[in-house]
Write a structure and sequence with these properties.
- There is one protein chain.
- By secondary structure, this protein is of the alpha+beta class.
- It has one domain: Alpha-D-Glucose-1,6-Bisphosphate, Chain A, domain 4 (2-Layer Sandwich), CATH 3.30.530.
- It has a seven-stranded antiparallel beta sheet.
- Strand 4 and strand 5 form a beta hairpin.
- Helix 1 crosses helix 2.
- The mean pLDDT is about 95.
Amino acid sequence: MKNFDWTSYTKKIAIRANVADIYNAWTKSSELEKWFLQNVEFYNPEGTRIDANTNVQAGSRYSWLWYLYKDPMPGVIKEANGKDYLQFTFEGECLVDVNLREEHGYTIVELRHHNIPLDDHSRQFVRLGCTNGWTFYLANLKSVKEGGIDLRNKDENLAPMINN
């Protein structure tokens, strides 16, 4: 593990959908709730809540809540170009970049989670834990977009597992 990069990682997935649909899936509250989160609230820099069907803009803040978890995660949208790139804070000051590109009839989603601190908590829960989470949620985005099936566990009678 001497040469293991604890500060960043990249995940990629090919989804048979157009770039605009995938961009909307990342930048509209109503779309994020279909594959990723139970509840999404975006606020513009002035603090006014953004309509669920409106794309978020750079400088906006968010509050995200997952199924079966009680504490929402706050963060900031650092960049959003309106077509194929989004960057946001995640787990404190970590950054997530989402790059989209069309290739052979697919949208390639490339997610880079970086700026991860080197303390033991961040190594375990952010570097190792979030990589598992992003792997599942990217697969769920593909499932929802290509087949309409949401793979998330939403049953409060079941403890959290790999699909939430």
